[in-house]
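It is worth pausing here to work through a concrete case rather than discussing structure prediction in the abstract. The textbook approach is simple: state the sequence, then state the predicted structure, then interpret. We follow exactly that order.
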Amino acid sequence: FSQAFTEMQINKLETTKKMNMIDMKCDMVKTGKHKYQLTEKGTSNLSDDIRVYQSVGRMFLLTDVENMREDLKAKQDKCDKAIELLEKKKEFLQKSLKDQEDGLRDLVQQRKEADASAK
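Step two, the predicted structure:
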């Protein structure tokens, strides 16, 4: 009994940690998306033929505003897909956590019933 109980508790803790990690990743992706939206908004009043510097890794490339906006849109779409995937993973983990909690409850209930019938 105690080994199964400990195992279930460990699984529950690991699932909770995974959910917290997913929340943190989701927040990071949302922050990145917000940054891309702000950049797009800040450059919205520029004409399409103006040349701007775009950050690529640790360097900057000279490009026109239209190409930069397309790149920002692509990055925002990528962020949306990542957020959607993380939300699905979190949903699955929530179901798993609920099942684990139900399993723990059942195990405790069985133990109580076994102790009650033994007396």
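Step three, interpretation. The longest strand covers residues 51-56. The beta strands are 51-56, 59-64.
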